[in-house]
Amino acid sequence: MGTTMQKDKVFHFNFTLLVLGQASSLFGNYILKFALAMYVLEVTGSATIYASILAVATVPMILLSPLGGIFADRMNRKNIMVALDILSGISVLCAAFLLSDNHGIAVIGVLLVVLSILGAFESPTVQACVPQMQTGQNLIKCNAVVNQVSAISALITPILGSILYVALKARHGSKHRMFLARRFI
Fold this sequence. Notes:
Order of helices and strands: HHHHHHH
Number of strands: 0
CATH class: Mainly Alpha
Number of domains: 1
Distance between the termini: 45 Å
Strand content: under 5%
Number of helices: 7
Helix content: over 70%
């Protein structure tokens, strides 16, 4: 009876947790990616390097998303989402420890690729969870909510990332570039 009642409500507890988790994950990752890309542009002064790193970091998402969908259909989705968030956190921490003046751009490039790989598995997993939680008209509404969270994240995070980047830069000065990168990561 509890499962039937949950599927009747659009924003029941589990779906709300899914949406909030997805929103926090997307906002955090998108803000970090944007701020790091801005850092690369500022440090190198090269739009070519900036665009190349962003392009290379996008390729895994394009190539691996279908594989992410297969994993989401065949494995425990909750475990996949938890593992991906843990791996994202570990990746960011490792990058923070590996940053240096000599290898900062390379570390950032690798981190952006790793986050893209993980993202290729996260998005299909979240989308595959919705039909387990909802039925009928609620399924359509909830799919719309999940897609709207993704779209809003993509729209708002460049603004938030730039505000964060400028605020940290103003607070710590341009002399402390590696400090700024470590603060983002």
